[in-house]
Amino acid sequence: MVPVLEKLYLELEHQRDVFLTEIRKHGEPAVYRTTDGHWNMVQVIGHLCISEKTSLDYLEKKMRGLEQATPSTLWELFKVGGLILSQRLPLRYTAPRGASLPEPTTCPLEEAIALWTAERQRLHTLLNRFAAQDVNKKVYRHIVIGLVDVRHMLIFFREHVYHHRWQIKRLQRQRK
Predict the structure, then answer these.
(1) Which of 69, 73, 123, 169 fits 137 for a cystine, CB–CB 3.0-4.6 Å?
(2) Which residues, other chains included, contact 86 with Cβ-Cβ below 8 Å and sequence gap of 6+?
(3) Which domains, and CATH codes, for the chain?
(4) Of 8-22, 57-71, 85-99, which range is least confident?
């Protein structure tokens, strides 16, 4: 795997491990409870999994025509900076139209985690197919900022988990 992609992927996996450890601390019954119609912890995991799955579906499609993809520019870096800021602010907002929203679920926690793990393994496989000269090609379409390269996609995945960490913390506070 190209070193920059490997570094980002390993950071993502470490972040996911920490995120899931925090959720598992609360035990199976607690991860399903919520108030006021907000997502429970399993639904948050489901949302992250669905979001990454649809992203990887698109990435896979774009990788078939990698030679036609154009390189990212400073403008994409600027857009990603704005995206990072939006995900880091502890604000609650409605997901963009067309975003992957989970249906209420009674799926067991470990099953939800297994689905997310399968998508991360798929991500690893796809990242292994990138050559160094293709890393900066625009192959991922984010629902708000548009086409960016695979590094930016990985940064979005990281920031998306970070953003939903606030949701998990709020749910944990409600349980105390």
Answers:
(1) 69
(2) none
(3) 3-89+101-175 (1.20.120.450)
(4) 85-99
